[in-house]
Specification:
Oligomer: single chain
Helix content: 25-40%
Structural class: alpha+beta
CATH class of one domain: Alpha Beta
Number of helices: 18
Largest sheet: 6 strands, antiparallel
Length: about 550
Amino acid sequence: MKENTVKKAAIGILIILFGLAATYCGMQLPAAVNEQQNEPEESDITKFIVAVEDEPDTVDFQCTSIHYTIAQNVFNRLVEMENDANGDMEILPSLAQSWEISDDGKDYTFHLREGVKFSNGQPLTASDVQFTFERLLTHPDSCNKDIVDIIAGAGALESGETEHLEGFKVLDDLTFVVTIEQPFEAFLACLTMPGASILDQETTMEAGDRFGIEPEWTIGTGSFILWKWIPKDGLLLKANKDCWMGAPNCEGLNLLFVNDAREIRRMFEDGEIDVLDLDELGNAAEFFLHGREYQSRLFSVPRIGITYIAMNESIAPLDDVRVRKAMQLSLDRAMLLAGVYGGRGAVENGIFPQGLYGYNPDLPEIPYDPEEAKELLTQAGYKDGFDLTVSVNSASTRWELSVLEMAQSMWSEIGIRTRIDVIDESDFMSRRKSGELECYTAQWMADFNDPDNFIYTFFGNSHNTTFRSLCYPKEDVMNRVQLARALSDPKKRISEYNDLERIIVQEDAAWIPLYSRRRYYVTSKRLQGIQASWNGSVKNKYREMSIIDN
């Protein structure tokens, strides 16, 4: 009896196991998981390029305006932007190998490169591009709608009136037409932004909220594959050996989440980091900038970007232009640049920084005049000053906090009692998007080399200006910004942008421009081939770098 019972139990277990195996075999797993199951479990990460990265809350590039390293390395865009031999910007083919523009400047016919596959083996098609653009407009957390909101029917799709984008027509698997509502000279340049990276429709739809969080669901066509995300530790990216551009020069990337400047310096000196952005070190950067041992390994490039202070015009007393002008005039911006960055950069007086297409070198200088600032505060009814909270993102560089501390001291001279509030990144972004931050400092790096990337992003419409907690109220000025996008004559468009820049910054004092800077990196002895893109970042050039044996 006992033996018979055991046999029956064993048979029952076998039946259950067989049923589970059959169920498992019938499951639809993502292609990325299937492919990873056929790959070796581990790679030799000692051959990976090691760099420092801020830990993101998501790497979904449609839902962040900060964390683009994954977008730049795991994904591609239809087109890319680079410098030509003369240093001028040009649009280059990427996933789109060619395109034609209609005579009226509204219809763009794109031809995708044949044979491009996502890292899970799925072929790239025009439907993936359509899905990408439609998700960019409809995702509830999208931060980058302005990349494609000029496409015909974008507003109707975003509001839920339609299910698909009217201005996107698929002709065949490799050909599609995008129709924009009005001519826009910088439309192709917009498509070079990280937020315009192309998604695998099938995998991304199945992933849902797991996209941008779980590596196996975050699938692109780029030089690397997001392999592992270890919370509080780092990101591991493996080389995509089958990338349509060819395999990268290195085996992978090891992006470490390290925030302490002293620890970063120690790790670099001990040979544990290969590419070090000196922005990560604060004042300790001087050691590498002037140390004889590191001179041959310093890499310096211009940075097309601006550090600024935003003031929320929906919150008193910042709704008074006299108060905002007083805040501008009471900052010795040259001293800020010298005191924190050793003068390595240039004071800016507008929205468009030096190096950007459309930069106006003749814009009047905003002087340092604390006496005039005091008079303006008195006129505004704040003779005894006022209390101000200035926020800073906890993920900002150490130098940005130092700048605020110096600004705090300067503002105190005219009676502005400033409290610096360092806010957790997710809270900072949430409050900034909803227009709640009173005042904050940040830097904006050009996503593409056109003034539209600056003036439309911050002052293009009520949504954009609220999204940045500027809450700029002048509808007539914002309407002019939108109309300027449609000007087909480049000279007229830049002239209009320059006039709008003067009104916004000089007359309305809608923000405080601080400075632009050069960017400095130092490399390990084993790293070769460091390069930077047109805007001064090396993060989308990792594929060109390699590790050699010491």
